[in-house]
Write a sequence for this structure.
C-alpha cells in the first residue's frame, strides 16, 4: 500500500508516519521504480502498536524500548514490566498534579460568582495577584503530554 492508504488504514496523518520513519520507529519501506513508498501489513501493525502506546501517553523513548522488545520476542520482558511500572508512576503523579490544578481553578472560580465589570472580576484579580506575588511558580513536570511531542 502507498503512504496515503497506510494513513487511512491507521487513521494517522502522513506527516506522522514520515516522522516515525525518521525517528526509526517505523522501518523504511521499499520503494517503487517511481520512488513511491510501498508499505506492507507489518508496517500497519507496527504503526497501530505505536499509536496505541502513544494513546497511553507513552513517550517516543518508551515506545522505542517497547519496540526493541517486540522485535526480540525471545528476550526477557522484565524491563518491559519496569518501564510500565515507571510509566504508571508518572501517570499517578500527573493525576495528582491535575487534581491540584483543578482545586486551584475551582478556588479561583469562587472569587467571581456573578457577571460584573472586568475591573471588578475576582478571577482576574486572583490571577494578577498570583503573578505579582509569585504565588504560582511554574512547576516542573517529569511526564507531561506536551513534553512528548504528541503526533
Amino acid at each position: 500500500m502507498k503512504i496515503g492508504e497506510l494513513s487511512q488504514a491507521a487513521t494517522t496523518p502522513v506527516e506522522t508516519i514520515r516522522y516515525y520513519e525518521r525517528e526509526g520507529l517505523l522501518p523504511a519501506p521499499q520503494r517503487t521504480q517511481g520512488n513511491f513508498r510501498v508499505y506492507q501489513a507489518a508496517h500497519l501493525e507496527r504503526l497501530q502498536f505505536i499509536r496505541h502506546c502513544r494513546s497511553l501517553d507513552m513517550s517516543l523513548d518508551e515506545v522505542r524500548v517497547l519496540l526493541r522488545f517486540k522485535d526480540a520476542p525471545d528476550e526477557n520482558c522484565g524491563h518491559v514490566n519496569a518501564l510500565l511500572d515507571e510509566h504508571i508512576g508518572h501517570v499517578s503523579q500527573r493525576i495528582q498534579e491535575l487534581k491540584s490544578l483543578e482545586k486551584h481553578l475551582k478556588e479561583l472560580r469562587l472569587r467571581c460568582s456573578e457577571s460584573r465589570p472586568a475591573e471588578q472580576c475576582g478571577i482576574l484579580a486572583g490571577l494578577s495577584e498570583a503573578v505579582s506575588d509569585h504565588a504560582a511558580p511554574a512547576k516542573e513536570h517529569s511526564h507531561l503530554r506536551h513534553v512528548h511531542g504528541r503526533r
Q: What stands out?
A: DSSP finds six helices and two strands in the chain. Residues 3-55 form a domain with the Multidrug-efflux Transporter Regulator; Chain: A; Domain 2 fold (CATH 1.10.1660.10). The helical segments are 3-10, 14-22, 41-55, 60-70, 78-109, 122-133.
